């Protein structure tokens, strides 16, 4: 059994209102020094067997079709 | 300027219906070999200056109060 992480973030050119709302709130709560926040998703995918290149390719396909929206999001697959 | 990542995942003992729904759907879509999926959040936090211990401690405080719910979620802070 192996564990693979898929990080999904909005593409840099896509506005992120959730992240902006958090960043705006911080100074009011007394936290200075944060210039930006972007919010994304993180998936932990447990797979049978080893996380070899074929398995990672399969997870990439899953990420592309089910976990991320490639029009507005970038994703990254890595072994945990 | 530095970039810090905050990964937020449900604690292992907390059920994750979103992740389970994805895992259940995969075989129907032709993807075999995935035994579990857990969905969490990933924040990219941009801070002024260096990501030294004091800055990371500040981000940990932000994560605890604003980004994660410590009752049901674990979080991890790391420099990108």
From TrEMBL, chains A, B:
UniProt subunit comment: Part of the FGAM synthase complex composed of 1 PurL, 1 PurQ and 2 PurS subunits.
Gene designation: purS
Matching HAMAP family: PurS
E.C. code: 6.3.5.3
EC class name: ligase
GO CC annotation: cytoplasm
Source organism of this protein record: Actinomadura macrotermitis
Source species taxonomy: Bacteria, Bacillati, Actinomycetota, Actinomycetes, Streptosporangiales
Protein name in the entry: Phosphoribosylformylglycinamidine synthase subunit PurS
Entry similarity comment: Belongs to the PurS family.
UniProt keyword terms in alphabetical order: ATP-binding, Cytoplasm, Ligase, Nucleotide-binding, Purine biosynthesis
Intracellular or extracellular location(s): Cytoplasm
Main location: cytoplasm
GO molecular function (one): phosphoribosylformylglycinamidine synthase activity
Swiss-Prot/TrEMBL catalytic activity: N(2)-formyl-N(1)-(5-phospho-beta-D-ribosyl)glycinamide + L-glutamine + ATP + H2O = 2-formamido-N(1)-(5-O-phospho-beta-D-ribosyl)acetamidine + L-glutamate + ADP + phosphate + H(+)
